[in-house]
Amino acid sequence: MDLQIAGRTALVTGASMGLGRAIAAELVREGVRVAVVARRRNLLEELQKELKTDLVIIQQDFMEESAPERIAKAALEGLGSVQILVNNAGGSRRFTLEASEEQWNEALTLNFTRQRQLTHKLLPQMVERKWGRIVNITGKSEPEGINGAFCAKAAMHSWAKGLSREVGKHGITVNSVPPGRILSEQILRNYPPEYRKKQSEEEIPVGEYGQPEDIANLVCFLASPRARYITGAVIPVDGGLRRYQF
Questions:
Q1: What is the C-alpha separation between 140 and 72, in angstroms, rounded?
Q2: What's the pLDDT tens digit per position in 63-91?
Q3: Which of 16, 55, 90, 145 has the fewest Cβ atoms within 10 Å of its own Cβ atom?
């Protein structure tokens, strides 16, 4: 299927590793001109060499207050426009009952506030062009305990749904993709092989952890004109791991 996105422009945050890296790579393969954001410039440069293409490389700590404005400015200067925004940056760690206000603020800022701020920086030029795609890589809605990132991702889902209703008339769609167990550096670091094998066999209907490309394929489709009638949706990519029906 021709996704009809060759020649379009995209900004991918958190693109140095894992899901963000795979998403940026797949967009490039579809002919999209891509700007990538991460703290570690060397990893973005490695991605550029691997893809044998010119990327707009933006080194930026997402926690900095000025990050959304600086990222938006650099992306627009490098690409001329941002037609596709993939909000992928974030991080998750379990909290205890004694989690501090600083920990809560960090989780909410990293996983919701900065994405919201960056999106609103880029919305005016999407509205002006009457076309845009916003795809948020979020998280599951079945927390095992207290986790600031889970709360932030729930806020992302609510905000994205509301935003989709405001911008649909401008040809802009807004969707969220919560990944299941996708093999990445973080998963390999946090879950030993024995646990991954047991969970694959007992909890995941398709019988295995996913690959970053499984997320990237959906993102590319949602970023295309072919997905014009899909907006305000939360679409899990998890091999059937989640048990709720909607």
A1: 28
A2: 999 999 999 999 999 999 999 999 999 88
A3: 145
